[in-house]
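Supplementary material to the annual report.
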Amino acid sequence: MERTRYLETVHRVVVKIGTHVLTGDEGGLSTTVFDTIVNQVIQLSEMGKEVVLVSSGAIAAGRTLLEPTHPNTSIPEKQALAAIGQTQLMGMYQRALDRHGRRAAQVLLTRDDLSHRRRYLNARNTLFKLLQFSVIPIVNENDTVMVEEIKFGDNDSLSARVTILVDADLLVLLTDAPGLCAWTDEGKPEQNPIPFVKEVTPELRDLAKGPSDPLGTGGMATKIEAARIATEAGHAAVIADGRLPSVITGILQGEPIGTFFAPLKDRLTHKKHWIAYSLQKKGELVLDEGAVQAIVHRGKSLLSSGVVEVRGRFDNGEMVVCLDENGTEWARGITNYSSQEIREIAGRKSSEIESVLGYRLRDELIHRDELVVMTKGSGVGGQGSG
Ligand code: GLU
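Predicted assembly:
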């Protein structure tokens, strides 16, 4: 889709802020930068948009607090610096948000967290709840527990995963380059970025090979890779200069800032395919006629009241098949509750879930965004599939 038209439709956005954007030239975190970023986030929020920040800067903050002149930092040293600096980082965000009477929430994640379906869903539910509370979630890698196998490695990659996790329309990667551009012989980015990328190709990656970032990690290569991950999953991305005033609001207002990466495919189709064809069936839910009608013809979520029987043993986050009472399959979806939990709440209203189970994870057993209506014999289709 064309850039301006796509950006007009953006509702939820993930903004990744690199260490250099936050520190400026001095090396320490700059209050002015936090104020500028937070002012824009608040403006977007007041326009009804939802913003999740993925922020680096913990190690840099820890370094200025503890050992500003230490040259080579080992992994455990970096982890310690991140643990020291993370509180400072969050403090800076909270102070900037205080001026607007808003709250920040710290969310620390590892790659391992997002590859476990249950933790993935828990992280997602928490983030959605924070957005619902109008709190600004600020995500960083949980550097304390990172070891090679479980770390994202850089916050660019983390931000792409978070974009998919919260189903954001757009990932904005803020850096200290004007966008995706070729590099000069002196190792400086050219001033004019490529405005539009339809697909991330190997040639494009070669063009953008620049020096990696000594303070943070990554550099342009990891930003392109993040844009590739996001666009392949159907989300748009922009790489832009985080030091420009009003960069975030400008991008969303359609100004030609940085490099825009168009989504490669339709997000819902991608997700429907994943649910319907990639996930293993773990159980079955037999639905009454009303529930079948609601999900197949009216695009509704599946609620506990419509379930008449639960077959098999499954956990929340697993794929289950929805059948009518004659055994015909109508839909597949990701359940928010386990088989044991559904056995207790089947036939009951959503408002009763909490009193029966003692807690309530979501109102829906299967949210319509994760429910794929199957056209008999021909795979995915029909109304109500998302
Ligand atoms: N998690 C690290 C920090 O907050 C940064 C990683 C990165 O720059 O990509 O300092």
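Residues 19, 56-60, 82, 140-141, 143, 154-155, 216-218 surround glutamic acid (CB under 6 Å).
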